[in-house]
Amino acid sequence: MLTMQDALARLTAYWTDQGALVVQPMNTEVGAGTLNPATFLRVLGPEPWKVVYVEPSVRPDDSRYGENPNRLQTHTQLQVILKPDPGNPQELYLGSLTAIGIDVAAHDVRFVEDNWASPALGAWGLGWEVWLDGLEITQFTYFQQAGGLNLDPVSVEITYGIERIIMALQDKTHFKEIEYSKGVSYGEVFGQSEYEMSRYYLDDADIEANRKLLDIYAGEAQRMIDAGLPVPAHTFVLKCSQAFNVLDSRGAVSTAERAAEFARMRRLAGEVAGLWVTRRTELGLPLGTVPPLDAARPPATTQTSEDARTLIFEIGTEELPPGELRSARTQLLRLVTEGLAGTRLTHGEIRVFGTPRRLIAVVPAVGAREDDHVRLVRGPKAQQAYAPDGTPTKALEGFVRGQGITVTDVTSVELNGVQHVVFEKQEEGRAAPAVLADVLAQVVSGLRAAKNMRWNDPKLSFSRPIRWLTALWGDDVVPVTVSTLAAGRETRLLRTAATPVIAVESAETFIETLGVNGIVPDHEDRRELIVVGAQDLVYPDGKIDVNGEAALIDQITDLVEQPLPLLGTFDEAYLELPDAVLTTVMRKHQRYLPVRDADGALLPMFVTVANGPVDVELVRTGNEAVLRARYEDAAFFYRADREVPLALLKARLSRLTFTDKLGSMADRADRIAALAQLFASQLGLSSATLDRAAALVKFDLGSQLVTEMTSLAGVMARDYALNAGEDRPVAQAVYEAELPRNTGDALPRSVAGALLSVADRLDVITGLAATVGLPTGSSDPFAVRRAVLGLLAVHRATPALASLDLVDGLAQAAAAQPVPVSPAVLEACADFLAKRLEQALTEEGKPIDRVRAVLAHANRPSTVDVLLAQLDSLAADPGFVAVAAAIQRARRIVPAGTAGSYDPSTLKEPAELALHAAVNAVPDFSDISSFVEATRGLVEPLNTFFDEVFVMADDPALRAARLGLLAKVRDLGEGLVDWTHLRLQ
Amino acid sequence: MLTMQDALARLTAYWTDQGALVVQPMNTEVGAGTLNPATFLRVLGPEPWKVVYVEPSVRPDDSRYGENPNRLQTHTQLQVILKPDPGNPQELYLGSLTAIGIDVAAHDVRFVEDNWASPALGAWGLGWEVWLDGLEITQFTYFQQAGGLNLDPVSVEITYGIERIIMALQDKTHFKEIEYSKGVSYGEVFGQSEYEMSRYYLDDADIEANRKLLDIYAGEAQRMIDAGLPVPAHTFVLKCSQAFNVLDSRGAVSTAERAAEFARMRRLAGEVAGLWVTRRTELGLPLGTVPPLDAARPPATTQTSEDARTLIFEIGTEELPPGELRSARTQLLRLVTEGLAGTRLTHGEIRVFGTPRRLIAVVPAVGAREDDHVRLVRGPKAQQAYAPDGTPTKALEGFVRGQGITVTDVTSVELNGVQHVVFEKQEEGRAAPAVLADVLAQVVSGLRAAKNMRWNDPKLSFSRPIRWLTALWGDDVVPVTVSTLAAGRETRLLRTAATPVIAVESAETFIETLGVNGIVPDHEDRRELIVVGAQDLVYPDGKIDVNGEAALIDQITDLVEQPLPLLGTFDEAYLELPDAVLTTVMRKHQRYLPVRDADGALLPMFVTVANGPVDVELVRTGNEAVLRARYEDAAFFYRADREVPLALLKARLSRLTFTDKLGSMADRADRIAALAQLFASQLGLSSATLDRAAALVKFDLGSQLVTEMTSLAGVMARDYALNAGEDRPVAQAVYEAELPRNTGDALPRSVAGALLSVADRLDVITGLAATVGLPTGSSDPFAVRRAVLGLLAVHRATPALASLDLVDGLAQAAAAQPVPVSPAVLEACADFLAKRLEQALTEEGKPIDRVRAVLAHANRPSTVDVLLAQLDSLAADPGFVAVAAAIQRARRIVPAGTAGSYDPSTLKEPAELALHAAVNAVPDFSDISSFVEATRGLVEPLNTFFDEVFVMADDPALRAARLGLLAKVRDLGEGLVDWTHLRLQ
To answer: CA B102 → CA B52, B108, B109, B160, distances in Å?
Structure first.
């Protein structure tokens, strides 16, 4: 059996054989190998760097006293940095797995999207988690920024999680059982340390001492920056980070403190990075610089056909994220379509395909060359071309000389009414390959992702690296070159294929060639294979909810090139876990399809989809082990949690800081409870259910499972509450208090739940607005925007809350905050609420004019809904339109500030007297429907009035009375609808 | 070329092949691999442990900005722990050198005594520095204690200094030039860090911040100890250590603070160690326990000779320190002599030999067996043996039954005047091998060193491990067994010999066998080879000062088994360095013999003595490189120092703390200067030379060279002063201020030097007595005892200071201290001075009675010398003896408190009148010579008085007068000599 220490030695040897340096772990605690200066500093600047090292990585937060089988406060990373990107880092990486005895063809090794970012380091990169049969074993990242600086060249970072890899290789279920060296287990060597350091991090570290350490370290870091010494400065930044992590694991860091400390560390790390680059430059870049890659030379090609042939163009990439793949297919279609439209090549219907590793455009019947073409070249005006005697002028002579023709070649035509000398130039159509090469080059450089990265190519940028181009027109290579890439006739198959690179005969056989070799380029084909395969696997015991899991299936479809659905099972005992726990793990963590019986109950099985012809048994076993470990984790917490009385779970909330200024989560839960009960009493909605639910609200945040899987907040509350014998409505209300968790999520169905949900959100909004401010731009660290959207959604969906005024609610929530909330802040909150409502409604497709017309009711969003619905149905009502138009006309005519009162005796004309009578006969109305009814009698008199009465009479008294009458019209519906905004048909 | 990273990988692989675990370096800064818990904690308790790891070791004090070719603030250790001692760790170690391509037979690899101790860890062990051609490349230690706990089993610690080894292997003269990995130099990778961390440690670390860190760390360590968590506690002890080292390198640690911090760390480390052992025991010793070694079985032997044969006994050891080897030879002779004396074996003259690896006893003509022997066995008293009728009693019957004889076998003899029944038992002499086996076993267990250690043997203890026994009597193995060792006929040659173990034919050929194989067992033979060889090598250019270097030559002689003197040279340019610098390095650091020309001037060459048939060129080159590096170091400092004005060097003293309560070294120098000038003015010895020397005194402590080689303090002061243009007498006085540096050292010859020396020592004594107290027991961390001995020596040797009263001097020095010095402390100092003087004088051979008789003059030690000399020459003077005896007699007769006055008119007897006249005629005297002259006239009257006068007359008046007269005699010489102590011949 390969021991852990042998594995470390072999990996190190593998990478040194690839030319890497070996350095030692950092001699101060770090949370990851990335923090070691051999990564953080060395990825900066233009010097090359290739290194491998072990890094015992300390994560105080992961302390579990050594009891959890998979979680350690210190785990072992093996870290590799390749700077520059060698062009084939994934292949090199797979070689390293082979070096430790992993048969990468038999296992399912996958590169699953992962966008890495470290806010504290001002660093980010794009890449993947590498999965071995569903187990995350490596982080693979193209570093784009560090310390806030753009990295050029880009570095490849490969971080192996050694304990996980070894547990998988040695088939162990607890890290302590790992054979660390021959005959000595991991637990025997590190077990005691794991326990004791957990004790320190979780229970015994002195908070005040660590706070002082944090400040001293930050002070030294700053002093060293000021002294121009990035190396010691960086060391102290790392010490800051560790001290912070200790405080965090002791539960001593509030949200706001976290943000402040991250900002401080980011600033320090940024200054360190800048200094490092400066110092290296001053030192003359001791390790030299990375030479730029040469631009590609187009392949020499000859055109072998004069008939129309198929064009295929394949853009080979490293594994694209599913979302980016979807978008890229669309872009590809557009770019190829536009590109071909700009040529004079004939062609058939353009089709595009895509897998994680390739984007393909297929265009049948692309003409061999563009048609020949006559182009009219304009010369001088005829008048200036010939002397009065008809002899050519110097102007004409110059023109013909420039065109390489003679005077006899030109004719004269009228252009824009003026006679010009022109030359009809015969242009030959260019050959297809040449034309296509230009078009396709533009396609490649035109691709853009939502999040783009750079790799070793000096000019390209995309979601993931583009590594090869295959371009064929019929039998001929299309000589596309883009930056360092030149197209050829080779395509790549699965990396584990016997022949990973093969030549393609012709464009016509390309898709077939892929297919023969197992690659399924079409998304729909792959999806079909997955759905059918999965249903087959689970038949007849169960089935996959294809509609319900549609998004997941689409995602899985775009994670593979050659789908191979596999059935796995898990111990029935885990079915004791709540459905949400089981499926969250399957879907979110593992991308497994849950299997249900005819009644919709979960079965102890799952379908995973491997990529390519793996060893099915091996991969199944591996995936089952991963799921088991995850479920074991969850079950461990679940069982422990259920044994804790709810009151005790709730009591733990006082140890969780919400923000430093807004108190603990316990304080927050108390505020929510009080506020919900206040609203209930105002609305006559008080109940014993609400009182009990209010007493419990948020208690599950004190549970271990929710600490681990925060998305289960509320769900677990319901489960634990029922388990503890609470009434079902109470349990439901505590669950619903968390709803909606995101846009489109379920909403509370019970009044008690809705009241708690509303109170929760009002508390968040007012508290944070008063302390850190409302979100601006795209930054919203505390998710205030989401809280507002949830608040609006709940109000709109809960009839019982229709009369609840949210602006009043804000004021009541504000009054309960432990900090003062100024009227200006409250006003800003109300305004923010209205803006979000406007946005939500317009996104739902409501016309902006109508939305704005009723937005004054934003304090009661359900009222807005009612009014909008009425507007919808009445917008075409002629009576409404007439009255509304009259009101708008009146608004235009009547000077601002004119009151809606007048002396009726001054009025004389019948039309004005009729209007006077009608206006004063308008009965009360409360909404738009009743408004329409109420004003139906006004339509006729208004029409007559505007037809017959000249408002601006010379007689001032008369004019005043008429204006007063119109002002009264103007004021109709005031407060109900803002007529200014309303656009009338 | 083997790169540094390859060397680390190969060493790691070598030790893992030997079954070692690999762990990672400590993730907090440590000064050495020993501090890593994989050493410090794992050597404790009964569990086995075998580990190898790299440890970047941080020594802030060694920071040199990366400029010094051999000194780094972070150097790389490779650390190996073997627990238990595998029995052949040296051989395993040599195998590891082979693994990195070192031909251990061609190079001179030596194990040179090194006793390791870490006061801060409460740890110590015995072992060696391993030298490769004179270069220290490894520390090799048998750990005896850690955290104040005895270690059982003992661990072997092997610590490789990687940079040094690689520099030697790669033939580099600066660490930055090391090829770290293929094509990448050490400097390119670590140069910047070396510079910047040096800046932090030497210049930029914030002292207050690091003081706070130290206290916080100590606090957390204590808290974790209290919580019963040794692992985090240990981490914080390490952090304490680093913070302390940072403060130290910033010059912020006073002597007293150092002692206090060491005490704190030692206490914490001790508690950590104790806790660790407790916890491991509670955990059931997860790694098991080390099985004890079996006791040896004696070899089956037959005796093949009945003639007397030679006995040889060889005790094979690992390399003994020269001092212990000397002592062991003496012990061996004594133990064998005593052992044989306890047998009845005949034998010739016993001779003993020894090399670092063997102790040998040779005894010619040892009889084949003991002579037969008659032993008288005593039975019952005759009276009780026979009944009155002559028949045997039960008592007699019991006796004969017990002896297996009959009544007829007994006779009767008188014993102690009583007739007893006896039996003359014929005892056969035992065979030599059996007798010798017992004797030799006692010899082995009887060996003791000044400092003893344990290894893997459960019962033995010695200076270094005993690994084999060779015992032959003639052709036969003497079946000696001691604990786990059994003697055989095999002996071991050099470890690098083609056949390292050979069988010995017979005792008679043993020494020859060794000789044939190159081993020179006799110290004198080896010494001769070295002296003759060395003189040959340097002839005719120079010579070795064999007498002057006698101690060094003796030491070298006992460092080798097969001496091979080699001549090395060094660059003449280094001769610019002071003689003392060059020779200190050669003698003390390298054990090289300096070579001088006919005038005694150093030549640029040296003789080193290799062990065994090495590759001469290789070893010479290696040694030359080592010396060059050391001289380069020294020259670097020397040149730098000489460019600094003396005033600036002196100014640096304010940055050196003497002790926290006694101020800086600058304060101390000021006090010394003022005190010396005060004495000078009191004694009329003031001079411009003194004034200038006083202004400069101790300035060289501010130089880099003295910081490096503290033993050169004073020597460098003279050199730098002359270089700076000071007058020679001034330079000499500044030098002499430091004299004597130890017992037997030179003393000041100039008055100015003596005054400064005395002032220096008075300052030390009073200051430390008042703050930390005078030394008690063997502990004297501040060397106050040495200061006192120096003070006495200077006073005694300097006639000009004869009238200087040291007790007054103490008071004057005390008055200048920044702390109050109480009268009680001053009294204790004076007492301490007197005691040391008494001790010094008796050690010089002065009779204790005379010393005590004049010790009242200890405040002027030179007076004591004068008086003692006079006592020496006058002790036999009959006049003196008579007077002295009379005085002592008078002291006995006269009651205490009797005054020496009387009424002369009361006296009547001629004898008493004569004495009265004589006593009153005694002239003044100032010393013992004049006392003898002055009292010569008393001899006769005293004799007569004691013969004829009965003092205790009945008449009270008469008796009072006589007692008064005698009291006057008694008081003669009072204050000059304390007659009580004086023993008269």
So the answer is: 20, 11, 10, 14
Give the separation between CA A883 and CA A889, rounded to whole angstroms.
Answer: 10
Question: What are the structure tokens assigned to B593, written together?
Answer: 């013999």
pLDDT tens string A360-382:
999 999 999 998 888 888 888 88
Q: Which residues pair with B204 in a beta bridge?
A: none
Of B854, B848, B743, the closest CA to residue B788 belongs to B743
Pairwise pLDDT comparison (A354 vs B905), residue with the higher score: A354
pTM above 0.80, yes or no: yes
Residue that has been written with the tokens 């772990």 in this structure: A25
CA distances from A174 to A58, A435, A628, B692, B962 (A): 19, 61, 12, 76, 104
Partners of A199 on chain B (C-beta within 8 Å) are 227, 229, 232
Convert B551-582 to b/e letters by CB count within 10 Å (16 or more is b). ebbbbbbbbbbbbbbbbbebeeebeebbebbb
Q: How far apart are CA B903 and CA B373, in angstroms?
A: 82
Using CB atoms within 10 A of its CB, is residue B520 exposed (0-12), middle (13-18) or buried (19+)? buried
Of B56, B209, B213, the CB nearest to A24: B56
A204 with B216: Cβ contact below 8 A: no
CB A210 within 8 A of CB A243: yes
Q: What is the DSSP letter of B820?
A: -
Q: Which residue of B has its CA nearest to A207?
A: B220
> How distant is the alpha carbon of residue B864 from its chain centre?
31
Å between A277 CA and nearest CA of chain B: 12
Interhelix angle A728-736/A751-771, nearest 10 degrees? 30
Q: Do A209 and B220 touch (CB under 8 A)?
A: yes
- Separation CA A360–CA A314 (nearest Å): 4
> B174: which 2 tokens?
């600066």
Q: Does the beta-carbon distance from B54 to A231 stay under 8 Å? A: no
CB contact under 8 A, B213 and A209: no
Question: Helix B751-771 crosses helix B823-843 at what angle (to 10 degrees)?
Answer: 120
Strands B74-83 and B149-161: antiparallel
Q: Of B3, B4, B21, B222, which to mutate for an interface test with A (greatest number of A Cβ within 10 Å)? A: B21
pLDDT in the model for residue A255: 65
- Identity (one letter) of the amino acid at A66? G
Q: Provide the pLDDT for residue A888.
A: 87
Kindly state the percentage of chain A with pLDDT values over 70: 100
List the one residue out of B936, B731, B31, B48 whose CA is nearest residue A27. Answer: B31
> Residues of A643-672 as b/e, b for ≥16 C-beta within 10 angstroms?
ebebeebbebbeebbbbebbbbbbbbbbbb
Average pLDDT, chain B: 93
Burial of A408 (0-12, 13-18, 19+ CB in 10 A): exposed
Confidence band of A985 (pLDDT split at 50, 70, 90): low
- List, for chain B, all residue ranges whose pLDDT scores fall below the cut of 70: 255-256, 778, 985
A691-725 residue pLDDT tens: 999 999 999 999 989 988 888 999 999 999 999 99
Nearest to B82 by CA among B92, B73, B74: B92
Backbone angles phi, psi at B818, to 5 degrees: -75, 0
Query: What residues are paired with A369 via a beta bridge?
Result: A431
Strands B476-477 and B466-473: antiparallel
Q: What is the mean pLDDT of residues A347-354?
A: 97
Locate A190 and state its tokens.
Answer: 């590190």
C-alpha span between A657 and A192 (Å, rounded): 31
Pick the range with the lowest mean pLDDT from A514-523, A770-779, A861-870. Answer: A770-779
Q: Is the dihedral of CA B452, B455, B459, B460 positive or negative?
A: negative
Strands (E), B382-511: 411-415, 418-427, 466-473, 476-477, 481-482, 485-486, 490-492, 501-503
